[in-house]
Amino acid sequence: MKNYDLWDLANKKRDVHRFSTLFTAQNVRDLLSTDEGLNNAMEWCKDTAVTHVYIESYRDGYTAERSALEKAKKFFIDNGIDISGCVTTTQIGKKSTGWNAISCFTNIPTQDKLQEIFEYTASMFDEIMIDDFWFTDCECDECKEAKGDQSWSDYRCDLMVKLSRDRILKPSRKVNPNVKIIIKYPQWYDRFHV
């Protein structure tokens, strides 16, 4: 039998400090879509004092199935874990001319897909974290034309603010008036994956 003193302490002190983790959309598919996988995840959360789980709906062109997301959400809530949704805005629609995982957010079909992803996620979660990749580095002809005489910095800043308001916040709140959106900025450094 496992010792859950750490889990008990984490629950007693969750108003002071909380440990969180993220299950990617692919983790939802591969690890959280079975009872065994959910039970293993819960054991891991207890062993590591994790009391808040971010359950991702989209990453790298993959959208997790609603049934798996809703099952995982219910399971964690029933087991005393706080939950939030998550979206990682990689490989949505048209690729950027820059970094391969990033999208051309000037492109209207890409904007439509972005909005669809957030509406989908807001239909299940009252809090959604945007993980790491909320930016664009594209310099395609479509972006150059839209940019006009602006600097790249000004154009991209204006574009991302407009998308945040018009393609994420407004549509998400139309689906779920209680939804909160969090941006998690990257913590990329040399030894991150060592």
Structural class: alpha/beta
Q: Strand fraction band? A: 15-25%
The chain-level mean pLDDT equals: 94
Total of domains: 1
List low-confidence stretches: none
Shape: elongated
Q: Return the string of H and E elements.
A: HEHHEEHEHEHHE
Termini, distance in Å? Answer: 32 Å
Main beta-sheet annotation: 6 strands, mixed
Oligomer: single chain
- CATH topology name: TIM Barrel
Number of beta-strand segments: 6
User: What is the CATH homology-level superfamily?
Assistant: Glycosidases
From the alpha carbons, calculate the radius of gyration and give it in angstroms.
18 Å
Portion in helices: 40-55%
Known CATH architecture: Alpha-Beta Barrel
Instruction: Using the coordinates above, name the CATH class.
Output: Alpha Beta
Summarize the structure in words.
Helix 5 packs parallel to helix 7. Strands 1, 2, 3, 4, 5 and 6 form a six-stranded mixed sheet that branches. The protein starts with a helix and ends in a 10-residue tail after the last strand. It has a single domain, classed as Glycosidases (TIM Barrel). The longest helix is centred in the C-terminal third of the chain and has 24 residues, at 152-175. The protein has 194 residues and is α/β, with parallel strands linked by helices. Helix content is 45%, strand content 17%.
